[in-house]
Amino acid sequence: MTGTSSYTCGDYRDEMTLLALRNRLNSAALSEDERRQIEEEIRKFEKRVGIK
User: Fold this and answer.
1) Cα distance from N-terminal residue to C-terminal residue, the chain
2) What three-state secondary structure class fits 44?
3) Which residue of 6, 12, 15, 28 is 20 to 30 Å from 51, comparing CA positions?
4) Whole-angstrom Cα distance, residue 50 to residue 34?
């Protein structure tokens, strides 16, 4: 392998955090309030890491 990778453990952690939030959002057992709260967490997280 030549060169260096710019993918870091922080990038991996961010991906896993976002995946966990999205999985929670897909849970059928959420109330509307919980769903809105998780959607807001996802928006804030995506903004912080530069997604969307």
Assistant:
1) 31
2) helix
3) 28
4) 24
Question: Which ranges constitute the DSSP H helices of 1-52?
Answer: 9-25, 32-49
State how far the Cα of 50 lies from the Cα of 52, in Å rounded to an integer.
6
Map tokens 């769903």 to a residue. 35
The b/e string for 28-46 (b: 16+ C-beta within 10 A; e otherwise) is eeeeeeeeeebeeebeeee
Q: Could you report the per-residue pLDDT of 19-51, keeping only the tens digit for each?
A: 999 999 998 789 999 999 999 999 999 998 888
For the chain, what's the residue count? 52
Residue 31 in tokens: 């109330």
* CB of 14 closer than 8 Å to CB of 20: no
